[in-house]
Amino acid sequence: MAFAKDLKRRNVLQEAVYHRIKADFDLGAQAAVRTVKKVCDAYATFKANLRAGNYGLEGSKRRIKAESKPVRFRETSAQPFDDRMLTWNLDTKMVSVWTVAGRLKGIPFVCSPEAMRLLAQRKGESDLVMRDGMFFLLATIDIPEPEVSGPDGFLGVDLGIVNIATTSDGRIMSSRQVNRYRQRKRDLRGKLQKKRTKSAARVLKRQRRKEARYATQRNHIIARKLVHTAERTSRGIGLEDLTGIRQRVTAREDQRARLHSWAFAQLGAFVEYKAKRAGVAVVHVDPRNTSRQCSECWHTHRTNRVTRARFVCRSCGIVLHADHNGSRNIAHRADAAWQRGAANRPRTP
């Protein structure tokens, strides 16, 4: 209905299908409303992905194919619940969940002491997710943000594939360990897929998402180090705006797997939310020519980048690691954006 008649707005779609889905599926009023909201949210996310170029350029085959069919939902996809449909009892560590078979009460849950402390500040929806046969509840926590004070300069961070993050202080966080781990996992998957046996299929199932979890852990560690350095030195953090980078960059065949497994968006998101909790300012800058511009004299030319790792300015002669030079440019641009007011910053009384 939403796709066929182009009813993507919540009020319009709810008016058209509310009574019908209540009668056809024997749903309560709140469940019917939440069903409509989930469909509208899915199409809003799809529209945002189109704008960001995640389905390719306008007119491309991939984009036309995506726009020609309705959004589909998997049986194991996340199910959002509001406080009327799912209630938490933190004292007894139990939840009550509405289902199509009736409300299930007294379901115990387990979490870490830190998560239990944060649940006291829970607000909004909770998502029920099924992974590898286990159910997880994802809760939204509302934590007041500390006031962001005016930074004393910026810590520029250059994100990359060979080096995950390089700071303007010259600290290089290499991705060698992550890339080796990913290569081992790819080799293992290839060997198991060739076997085509039941035991190989069981091993493949156990290996699922291990690589993603490992990369997520590494990104948490790196983000925590970056925010701690900026907080300790009373600086903000400058990051590149890499939206749509995978569509803009053409990689060789042997580099495509590394490019598309590059979790720079996740690392950037981790840096942002950790910085907000610490009261550290974050500014995104235009990444154009950060690898070609000299961070000392501002001379910009493609020949300044001699090799992937070596930068030699043709004007002033300074020699730097290429990623270090790029991170210094990012720091300069972030500071300039903050000074001219192009970045979000607290108002001064």
From TrEMBL:
Family annotation (InterPro entries): Cas12f1-like_TNB, RNA-guided_DNA_endo/Transpos, Transposase
Taxonomy, superkingdom: Bacteria
Domain Probable transposase IS891/IS1136/IS1341, chain residue ranges per copy: 146-242
Swiss-Prot/TrEMBL GO biological process terms: DNA recombination; transposition
Domain Cas12f1-like TNB, chain residue ranges per copy: 264-330
GO molecular function: DNA binding
Keywords attached to this entry: DNA recombination, DNA-binding, Transposition
Protein family membership: In the N-terminal section; belongs to the transposase 2 family. In the C-terminal section; belongs to the transposase 35 family.
Name of the protein: Transposase
UniProt source species: Streptomyces coelicolor (strain ATCC BAA-471 / A3(2) / M145)
UniProt lineage: Bacteria, Bacillati, Actinomycetota, Actinomycetes, Kitasatosporales
